[in-house]
Amino acid sequence: MDYYIDRLERTAIPAMRKLLDAFRTAQRPIVHLAIGSAYQDLRDCPQRFREWTRNLERAAGIEDLWWTGNPDYSFREEVAPLEGETVIRKTTQGAFNGSEIQNVLDRMGVKNLILTGVVTSCCVETTARDAADRGFGCVMVSDACADCDQGMHDAALKNFGLYFGRVAESADDVIQALAAGSRI
Amino acid sequence: MDYYIDRLERTAIPAMRKLLDAFRTAQRPIVHLAIGSAYQDLRDCPQRFREWTRNLERAAGIEDLWWTGNPDYSFREEVAPLEGETVIRKTTQGAFNGSEIQNVLDRMGVKNLILTGVVTSCCVETTARDAADRGFGCVMVSDACADCDQGMHDAALKNFGLYFGRVAESADDVIQALAAGSRI
Amino acid sequence: MDYYIDRLERTAIPAMRKLLDAFRTAQRPIVHLAIGSAYQDLRDCPQRFREWTRNLERAAGIEDLWWTGNPDYSFREEVAPLEGETVIRKTTQGAFNGSEIQNVLDRMGVKNLILTGVVTSCCVETTARDAADRGFGCVMVSDACADCDQGMHDAALKNFGLYFGRVAESADDVIQALAAGSRI
Amino acid sequence: MDYYIDRLERTAIPAMRKLLDAFRTAQRPIVHLAIGSAYQDLRDCPQRFREWTRNLERAAGIEDLWWTGNPDYSFREEVAPLEGETVIRKTTQGAFNGSEIQNVLDRMGVKNLILTGVVTSCCVETTARDAADRGFGCVMVSDACADCDQGMHDAALKNFGLYFGRVAESADDVIQALAAGSRI
After folding, report:
1. CA-based nearest distance A170→chain B, Å
2. Which residue on chain B is closest to D109 by alpha carbon?
3. Distance between CA atoms of residues C144 and C142, nearest Å
4. Residues of chain A that touch chain C, judged by Cβ-Cβ distance less than 8 Å
5. pLDDT tens profile A137-183
C-alpha cells in the first residue's frame, strides 16, 4: 500500500488537479466518475463486486465504502467537482458496464477522452478500453493515474498503447498539446 | 387534459397505491422510475427530448420540469418511495434507453415486471416493450396507467397484449392472482 | 389478414421500393433490417418471442420462419439488398434490443433515420422509439409501413409524432423533401 | 512473433481443443467468438480499430484480415465450430462492445464462462473483464490463452485474478474440476 499511497498523493492527485485546472480554464467539459451506490446493501453492484468490496472493507476496517449515504463518502477535496460539472456514479469497475456514461457522453457531444484515476490497471484501464472499442478517441495520462505496483501500471499502459489508444507521459504533456492545438 | 387529470387522480394513482401496498406487505421488490436529470440544462437527455420538454414547459408555464434540483421536483405523496426502496432516474421516455434499469434489475435478480404509470402509450409502453424484448416477463396494468385519451390507452394495451406480454385489467386482478399464487 | 396483405402489396412495398431507388440514386446509406436467427432452435431470441413465433408458425402452417438456414428465408425481391448494402439480422421486435444496429449506425456516422417496414405498430414503431430515445432524428413513413389493421397503424403514427419524432405521409413526400434539401 | 506462434501452436490451441472435447462430451454449451465483419470496408468496426487493422495488414502483407467474405477467412481446424454450436462475430476487441454476446448468453441461460483465446491481454482479457462486470462468473484459463510476450500474459492474469474473477492454470485443471463437480 505504501507505493500506492505515495504515488497517489505525490504524483497522481497533483497531476489530476493540473488537468482539472487547465480544462476549467479552457472551458472544456469535465466528467467526474466515482464508484458509488445509493444503496447500503449495494444491490445495484454485481454480486462478485459486492463480495469483493465486503472483503476489502473487512481487511481495511472500514464500512460502506461505496455507499453514497455514508457521511464519510466524498470526493477528495483537490479533485472535487465544482457546481455544474458532470458527475457519474458507477457500480462496476468498468464505467461502461455500470453507469449512464455512454448516454451522457453521447448527449454532451463528447468524442475524445483524456483519462485519469485509480487504479490504472483496473477501473481506469477497463473504462478506457471500452471507450476505445465504442469509438471514443482515448488518451491515458500516466502520471495522473496510480496503481498498487509499478509493474501493473506499466503493463496497463503498454497494453493500452499497443491496442486501444494513446498514452501521455504526464498531465503537463497533455496541457501543452492542448494549448498548442496539436494532437496529443 | 381533463380526461388525463381525471384518469390519473381517480383511477391510476389509487390503483398504483393498491399495488404498492400489496407489494410492500408481501415484501416483493418495488422499483420507482421517474424522469429526472441532475442538470438544469438537461445535458444528459437526448436533444430532441430536451426541446420537447422546453416546449412543454413553455406551454404549461412551468420551469425545470425534470431537474432534480428544482425544489418542486418530487414524487406524488401517494406513490412516493419509502426509505430503502429502489429509485431510478431516467433521462428518456423508454427507461432502457436512458437509465441503469437493466443493470439494477439484473443485479436484484428480477425476472418479471408488473408495470404501471403515465402515460400508457409513451413512457410505460416503451419501457414495457423493451423489457419484454430483453427477456422480462411483463404485465401492464390497465387501471394503474393513465393516458391523454382513451383511444391511445386502449391501442397501447391492445398492441402490448398482441406482441409483447400480458395485460391485466386492474390492480385488484393482479393482487388476487399474486395472493393465489397463480399466473397473472 | 386481407387488410394486411393488400396494404403490403399495393402500398407499402411499392413505397419502400421508391425510397430504396431514391436513396440508391442519391448514394445515401441504406440499412436493411430483418428478423433472423442463425439457429433453428432460435436460441438467441427471447423465450417469449420464441414461443410467440412457434404459435404463429403453427397457426400459419409454416416452419422455421426466422431461421436464416431455411431455404425459403429471403428478402422480398422488390426490396432485397444489393451487394454492398448493410444488412442487420435482429432477434427481437425492437432492433435495438437484439441486434448490432446501434454500433453499426454509430460507426457509419448515421444520425438520422427514415423508417419503413412491417408491422407499423410493432417492429417499426418499437425500433423508431428506441432510435429517437437514443438520439437519432427519426421519420416514420406512413405509406411505406403496413399493419394488421388501420386503427393500429394510425395509433402508432399519432403516438410517434406526439412524443418521438416526425411522420411523413408518403415516400413521395420524403423524396421531394430530400431532393429540395429541406427538412422532412 | 516467435514467442506468440510457439505459444499458440504448442500450448494454447491444444489446450483449447482439450476444453472443446470435454465440453462436447459433457454437452455443455460452447460459444465461439471471432473478430469478423461482413463488410470488406469494415464499416461496422470502430474507426480506430479499422486503421489499426489496415496497419497490421500492411505490416503482415495480408489483406482483408477480418472480412468474412475473404476466402481465406476461417477458424483453425483444431478449434472450428461443429454444426449447431453457437458462433458470434465481433467487430471490436472486447466482445461486449461489438457483438450480440450479452443477448445470446442471456437467452441461452449461461451464467458462468470459461474463457480462452488470443491474445490474453487484449481480446480475451477485455471480454473477460466486461463479462465479470456484467455479472458472469468468469475463469480465464492460462494455458489456453496466448499473448505476444510472457510478461503481458502474466500481467493480464494477475490483474484478472485480483479484481475480476478466477484464473485456472490449465485446461486440465478445469476439466478435472468440472468432472469432480467442484468449484474451479
Report:
1. 30
2. B135
3. 5
4. 106-107, 134-135
5. 999 999 999 999 999 999 999 999 999 999 999 999 999 999 888 76
